[in-house]
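FAQ: What does a ligand-bound record look like?

Like this one, built around protoporphyrin IX containing FE:
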Amino acid sequence: MNSIKLIFNDLWKFFASVKLSVILLLSIASSSVIGTFIPQNKPLDDYFHTYGERLFTLFYRLGFFDLYHSRWFTFLLILLTINIIICSIDRFKKNYKIIFPKTPLFPDSLFQKSRAQASFEVESPRNTLMERYEPYIRRRFKFVKCLKEGDSYRIYAEKGRWSRLGVYIIHLSVLLLLFGGLLGGVMGFRAFMMIPEGESRGVAKIMKTGEEISLGFDIRCNDFHVGFYETGQPEEFRSSLTVVEDGKEVLTRSIIVNDPLRYKGLSFYQSSYRPDTPDAEYFKDREISLKFKMKDSGFEYVEKAKIGDAVEAPENTGTFILKDYRSGFLFGGVRDIGPCFIADFVPDQGEAVEIVIPLQHPRFDHMRGGDFIVSVEDFEQRYMTGLQITKDPGVPVVYAGFIIMIAGFIITFFVFHQRIRLDILDEGAHRRIIVFGLSNKHETGMVLNIKNLAEKLERLDQ
Amino acid sequence: MGNEPIYSSMVLSVITFVYFLSAVLYIVSWIFKNGRAGRIATWVTVAAAIGNSAGILLRWVESYNYGLGHAPLSNMYESLIFFGLVVTVIYLFVEFKYQSRIIGAFVTPMVFLIMAYAALSPNQGIKPLVPALKSNWLIAHVVTCFLGYAGFAIAFGVSLMYMVKNYLPAIAGKLSGILPQSDILDDLTHRMVMFGFLFLSIGIITGSVWANSAWGSYWSWDPKETWSLITWLIYSFLLHARLMRGWTGSRIAYISIIGFMAVLFTFFGVNYLPGLHSYAK
Ligand code: HEM
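The answer part, i.e. the structure of the complex:
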């Protein structure tokens, strides 16, 4: 029983030490440096290439390729967490009496030793001085205590005692950040999905594992738009999205890069886009612009047609029938030339021919050696929008940590616990006033404050 | 590209020389104990700060004239110019508070170097913003980070003075009368570190919030983020060593100097780290 208590005490002392925390802060800092010199989470092949076999093996064992999630880094963070908790409890226990006393404490021996002291002499009697100084000090301090005991005329005052709590607020905020990070790591994920315009998807791919997950509802991409500056740099990516749940449209909203859609704990971020390769369904009833370049005259004509339409070919050469669309075409039975339109051309004189018009090779029809070269001029290009989906239940915790961390800094850095003692002493014909100051930090500032206070009090007398 | 900010660049080059002048004046006033040079130095520095602000505003206006309208905080050049201004303004405040111009002899040369370095950077044209940078969080992020860096920069200058005073007895013998007392330097270092730490923290926080709003991840351990965390940990170490273990003087000055090296690395060095694709082939 006793030995358990001893071990507990030892452990407590170990974790309550600021020496440990200083060591931990430095260890975490220096380990983090390693992770910035070795790029993280790359394919293992790359590492093998860069570092050679021996270093690779060593680094791999040490977890350097995913350092910030390695066991030993996590271990350091856990030690830091315990350190902060124990240390704060330990200090809080010791400071509790100062922060929440029944009546504020004014330790005379500390006042006597303080560097912050100032004194001056005045003529008035002690009672008058007491009455003059008390209201002045009351206006500037939260708590004031006047003493008139026999020969001792004294005023004690203090303010800012609660600012001593600021440190605990800061340390709590660090704990919230660590905890929020953990929560996100354990319960959250990042995934990705691509949706063609006009279509819905309900499944996304987890980035780390490649595993597919079902969202529990569908996202439809109504429209994707990319805008450009005059320089050709992209100015904005915008997707209009609709959440469809159980066949019902729940919510429609546009997202841009800095403005995600949030639904049921998931956030959808505009992340990338690419032109879609359409299917035959897509071109049903959709107009396509075709360009005809005439061999003899060199003129170019643009004709619009839908699949199934027959149009007059330019310069009365014949009838052109847009027959079909195929998402892939093997040219000569071997080479895939990608998506194509297939057309029939019935010349005014001669045999009908089949023409293949690939979307990606506008000069393809050259080879046929006909009266004209036909190519796809334009059609309504369909895009796919790339969405990143994140779930991170730790975010609210982390944000709460952010807010109280800033509050804690402001309290600890700009407010401090100030205590003063003012002695009114008889010295022959006149009175000597001595002002002492005591603060939990900023000694230099306190010296100045006391000097100012003494000057102001002296002036009250004139 | 035709988006050259002609007028603001002109103003800012002139201001760089004004900073040089103020640095010379502060040093003259310090070495030769010349009060007049010191007073002129202060006014020259005030003028430089006003000109610097005007240059930044003018650049902002010019970006609107080119139809790109965004705050001039989007690249290395713009942020350095802003950094120079912030350091100067904080320094002037310290000078006013402490009624001492000696620190100016250490800080204004630094500002001059920052401005001169900015003038050397290749990309000074006003570029359109890529979509991810269009966020008010980004502006809050850049402004607060640079307030933080500025606090650390001044702490660094003061720590250097402390080192000169305490470790170069040959010079210090001659200069000791004209350097401020050690405990004032020590106190000022501490205050500037607190100021810097507060704003670096807010800077990291606003950066996180921005990243979360743009990419859905508030922290991704990329080298720049990680280095700002390293910097933060070093200064956190300084604060604990000082408050809890009672470190003062040269030990604190050392940490403050190391901390500022980390600041510089966060800002410049990170670009030279093995990046995403440097060994891809
Ligand atoms: C990265 C995490 C941490 C941060 C940001 C942090 C921040 C701070 C700050 C700013 C102060 C100064 C407060 C003041 O001005 O009075 C402080 C004080 C302190 N810190 Fe930390 N701290 C961290 C971790 C720790 C850890 C791990 C310990 C564990 C031993 C610790 C123990 C203390 C103690 C004992 C004090 C003094 C409290 C007092 O005045 O009673 N800190 N901390």
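Follow-up question: can I read anything off the structure? Yes, for example: Chain A has four domains: 2-94, 101-160+416-460, 189-276+383-391, 280-376.
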